Amino acid sequence: MKNLLKSFTLIAIMIMVPVICQAQAKPNFTGTWTFNAEKSKLPEAPAGGGGFGGGGGMRMGGGDMVITQDANLLTVETTRPGRDGGDPVKSTVKYTLDGKESVNAGGMGGERKSTATWSADGKSLKIATTMDFGGNAFTTNEEWSLVDGVLYQKRTMPGMDGGETTTTMAYSKK
């Protein structure tokens, strides 16, 4: 009887360990991704043109991405169409996945300081990025998730009216 109990216990452990490990697995964003306008949610363009959503979302971060991810580093290489049909604009940012601050080049010669942390359930990655423009801090918060093979980046940032603007960029794997 004692040996039978040990056998059942061993079998239960062998079954449960992979199930528990799989349930806690974090998404891996590695791949080549292309902007999916149909699944994205962009803010309305303000009156008078100026468009947040203009150019199919390209000004809000659309374009193609090549992402590599290992246990502690997420590297995002983005290619966006150039302004007014000019040469494509390429950029690379790197985020550590251990909650420590990452520093990347920002626009106009500045720096982007970001902290990436996993959500409590491990299903999404949260990235808080701060840039400084002449003493004025500008912070965006992103939440990355994979749903049915689509990469979603929900981004919240200060709006021009003093409130917040939220966009959801969707990317399909090539």
The whole-angstrom Rg is: 21 Å
Strand content: over 45%
Helix content: 10-25%
For the report, how would you describe the main beta sheet?
A: 10 strands, antiparallel
Arithmetic mean of pLDDT: 82
Quick take:
Helix content is 13%, strand content 47%.
Q: How would you characterize the overall build of this protein?
A:
The termini are far apart. Strands 4-3-2-1-10-9-8-7-6-5 form a ten-stranded antiparallel β-sheet, with no helix packed on it. It is globular, with a radius of gyration of 21 Å. Mean pLDDT is 82; it is low at 17-23 and 48-60. A hairpin with a 5-residue loop joins strand 5 and strand 6 (111-118). It is mainly beta and 174 residues long. It has one helix and ten strands, in the order αββββββββββ.
